[in-house]
Amino acid sequence: MTERVGVLALQGAFARHVEACEAIGVAAHEVRTAEHLVGVTRLIIPGGESTTMSMMLDRNGLREPVAAVLADGMPVLGTCAGMILLASQVEGGRSDQASFEAIDLTVKRNGYGRQNQSFTMSLSTAIFDEPLHAVFIRAPRVTRVGNGVEVLAELDGDPVFCRSANVVVAAFHPELSADRRLHRYFCELS
Predict the structure, then answer these.
(1) 80 catalytic, yes or no?
(2) Domain boundaries, position 80
(3) What is the CATH number of the domain that holds 163?
(4) Averages of pLDDT over each 10 residues, the chain, 190 residues
């Protein structure tokens, strides 16, 4: 089956994820409605503002369809706000903010500071020979790692890149780098 990546396009850096997938030869399109999930084999939930994205999932009638494809085991990549939306527990979120609980992590919103405290760095990982260029913008901080979660990279002892089965999450923005290895890794998950 040919891979077709859907990128949740409610808010955030979704266009850059589409470009990253296309740069490695994988078809990708923006997902704004449940109909846009038809034919999708993998899903990316991008960075942005997690409370806004949570509200827009409900407003656009996407929460249940996305939850259903995740429950069916569709591979998903969540970056920054996407990590928050996939985590089992969120610290510092609004009381009406809901996550998909797809990976057993507790994350703290804006755990690495506010917008003006954003930073980039070379990040060593457990899966790539060379460090990744990682862009952290109001990034979530993982405060608890649950059973079955593999930590693929850490920053000062805190996990920032994790995987559990078909769920991959990163506290940083791989789409804002010219390095496409993380997208390739996600698109090649079996």
Answers:
(1) yes
(2) 4-187
(3) 3.40.50.880
(4) 88 93 96 96 94 92 97 97 95 80 94 73 96 92 96 96 98 95 95
